[in-house]
Every structure is written in C-alpha cells, then in structure tokens.
Amino acid sequence: MVDRKNADEVKAKLDQLRCHFTWELLVEDTELPDLENRILDEIDFLDTKYNVGIHNLLAYVKHLAGQNQEALRSLREAEGLIQQERAAQSDARRLVTWGNYAWLYYHMGRPEEAQAYLDKVENTCKEFEAPSRYRVECPQMDCEEGWALLKCGGKSYERAQACFEKALAVDPENPEFSTGYAIATYRLDVFNKATQVSEAFCLQTLKEAIRLNPEDAYIKALLALKLQDVGQEAEGEKYIEEALTNMSSQTYVFRYAAKFYRRKGSLDKALRLLKMALRATPSSAFLHHQIGLCYRAQMIEIKRAANWQPRGQVRENFDRMVRMAISHFQFALEQKPTFDIAYIHLASMYIEADDYRSAEDTYQRAFCLKSLEEEKLQKMHFHYGQFQEFQKKSEVNAIIHYLKAVKIEKASLLRDKSMNSLEKLALRKLRRNASDVESLSILGFIYKVKGEMNKALEYYERALRLAADFGNSETQSLAMEI
C-alpha cells in the first residue's frame, strides 16, 4: 500500500515536468518507424548545433516502441552532448533530459531512480527561483518543445510555431529560436495552404533566420523553394546554388534542391540529386515520393509529346515511367503508411496503368487513415470523385464524393473544382431528365454555397414542387437535406 502511495506521489510530480512525456506529442503507432528513420537521418546528416533535443526525442520514440533500454542509451547520448555545451545554454536541455529519465524509470517500474531525477530537477528549479518545484518557464524550454513538435508532423506545426514565437518574444535575436520559427512557418504554409500564412510573412521569417544563421544551407534551400512559390524562381535558384556549394547538411540540401528543380521542369537534374540523397538515406519516404513525382512528370511529358496517345516504343517508355513511379510511391507508403498525398499519387499511377482495382484499393486504404485533416480529406474526395466519374463511369458515386468535398467548408481550389464538377454532372443529368429532383437540389446547394441565394431558392423550389408532385417524402427530405 505504501508503494502504491509512493508511486502516486511520484506520478503527481512527473506530471509537472516539461519534457517529451508531457508535451502531448501526437504520434500514431503506424508513424513510429518513419519517425525513427527521420530522427536517425537527422542525427547522421543534419549539421546543427541543436542536436541534444533530437536524442531526447529518439529516447521517447524508443519508449513508445517498447524499447526502454535503447531509450536510456539515447538519453545518455543527450547527456554527453550537454556536457559539451556552455552551461547557460544547456540548463533547459538538462531539465528536459532529466525529466525524460524520470518518466522512463517510472514506466520501467523503478520509482526510486525516477525520484532521483525529480530531485535533480527540483534543485535546478530552486537555482532558477522558479515558482514551481518541478517546472521552469524559459524561452529555451519553449524552444525545446518547439523542436519536438516540429518533428511530429503537420498536426503539430501550429503548436511548434507558437512555441518558437513565445521564445522569440523574450529573445528576438536568438539564432536557434529564429531558425525554428522560420522552419515551423514554412512547414505550416506548405502543409496547409488554407491557413493563408501570407507569402511575404513566410519569406520574411526565412530571411531573418538566414541573417542570424548566414551559413545555414538548409534554411537557404527552404527560402529558395518559397521564392519559387511566389514566382521569384531566378532569385530562388541563386540560394539553391549557394546551398549546394556548402558542404553542410548536404543530404537535406539535395532533397530540397531536387524539389526545386523538379518544379522548374529540370527532371534529370532533380533525379540525379534525389539519387545522391537516397544513397545516404535509402529508407526516406520523402525521397521515394519525390522520385515517384519525377517519374510521374516524365510520364506526363511523354504523353503530351505523343498527343496523349503513346504507341510503340513511346508507349514502352511511358509504361516504364508508370511502373517506376508506382514502385517508389509504394515504397514511400510502406515506410510511412500515413503519407496521405502519396496514396492519391499512387492511385493516379494505377489509373494510368489501367489497373482500376489497385486504384480502388489504394483509395480505400487512404479513407481508412485516422485523423485526416479537413483539407486532405477534401482532396481525397475530389480525386476519388474524378476516378468514379471518368474511370468507373459512376455518376452516382462521383456526386457523393464531390458533395463530401464541398461540404468540408475549407476554402480551396479543390473545393471550387468539386463544385464545378458537381454543377456539370447535375446539368448533364437534367438534360436527360428535367424532373430529376436530386440534380435540382444539388444546383440549389451549389448556388447557396456560392452565395447566389436567388438562384439557389429557384432550384430548391423546383425540386420541392416536383417532390410534392411525386408524393415522395423521401425525395422531399433529400431536396431539403442537400
């Protein structure tokens, strides 16, 4: 009974700590292998002064995977790196590492050792004159939390950005805080265009990070991509070339330089860079996806040059590109089963190969993903609607999925495209049958979404009149529901 009480007391103290175990890092079990691969790649290939945190994160991931002894080894690595830092910089990192030790020993059923690390945290908090016995509020701690969140994928980017912003409010000239904030802002912009982070703001944060970190080739590569986004490709290429001449973080620079050249249309150059990066990190889902995109782009070039009807030797080249793209997209998804956009790209390649069954299976796997963000789900419904309309020739299923895309109230280009596709389908059905209540209801719904209320009412009223004439209550409720 005393042991249980002691364990409860230890747990109450642990909950007050700021470390990876209390930061609510959202990692699904299926994401663990890819996250671990990305952490190991960063340890080996990203040249940074800020790598204590990545060993702490690796320890947490090892724990989640049930490998507590390996987790302890990673924490010892973190401790070793802390010893090499100046004391002022390392206090917060030491507290995070000790907090992780305390939690890990608690989970291993070793409360005495957990308490020993809690004591270390408490003594340091006294030195900081912190109001809490086990918690310190300082910008370096916010920064550590930001790095951990940043590594855990798109659903954590907003929280990561907020952490770095909080740290910068205290120390605006800190190079590490500025770097973290710039990366978080860039990632958030790429991840979710609907947030409408202003292009100018994103550029500004990247340029500020370069001002404070002039030798950081990784940030230069990100700035180049952002400049390309806003139509300043020539200026962006200068930064890419600058980054490529720097030996720092080359594997990462190759990745982003390849993305830059792929989007520019220099596909051979992009593939060359991607294959160089792949030699260093052969399991990277990101790289395999990018290589797949290059082969897909080459396939489109072949198709366009053949007036969309490749034959003979040209057809063989076309089929080879499709097979190569499929192979790399499949590998990316094996490494990272939550890689939502890769499902859409893989399905599109199966469609090119006339393998509709595999395309269908791929879409169904994608729809089974947990916690898909609204914009991603919207994209999935649009593309699946297209597949149903043009390959499966199912107007009914196409309408269902275009409607689902539109009903996700996230302003986007694909929502607009879904509305246009719905409108075309509804008008086509009405030409065949002017009394089609569903099509009239759909048109009413579309005009309502567009804000054209007079037109919306006109179509809704026509639908309801017809439904009343047919005396079909089910049809009436459908008209009202849409």
Walkthrough of the structure:
InterPro entries: TPR-like_helical_dom_sf (IPR011990), TPR_rpt (IPR019734). Belongs to the IFIT family. One of its GO terms (cellular component) is cytosol. Keywords: Antiviral defense, Immunity, Innate immunity, Repeat, TPR repeat. It is globular, with a radius of gyration of 27 Å. Helices cover 76% and strands 0% of the residues. Helix 14 packs antiparallel against helix 15 and helix 22 packs antiparallel against helix 23. It has 3 domains: 137 residues, Tetratricopeptide repeat domain (Serine Threonine Protein Phosphatase 5, Tetratricopeptide repeat, Alpha Horseshoe), CATH 1.25.40; 170 residues, Alpha Horseshoe (Serine Threonine Protein Phosphatase 5, Tetratricopeptide repeat), CATH 1.25.40.10; 50 residues. The chain is built from 24 helices and no strands. The mean pLDDT is 93.
What's the arrangement of secondary structure elements?
Blueprint: H1 2-14, H2 32-45, H3 52-64, H4 68-83, H5 87-107, H6 111-127, H7 139-150, H8 157-170, H9 175-191, H10 199-212, H11 217-229, H12 233-245, H13 250-264, H14 267-280, H15 285-305, H16 312-335, H17 340-352, H18 356-367, H19 374-391, H20 395-407, H21 413-432, H22 437-450, H23 453-470, H24 473-481
Helix pairs in contact: 1-5, 1-6, 2-3, 3-4, 3-5, 4-5, 5-6, 7-8, 7-9, 8-9, 9-10, 10-11, 11-12, 11-13, 12-13, 13-14, 13-15, 14-15, 15-16, 16-17, 17-18, 17-19, 18-19, 19-20, 19-21, 20-21, 21-22, 22-23, 22-24, 23-24
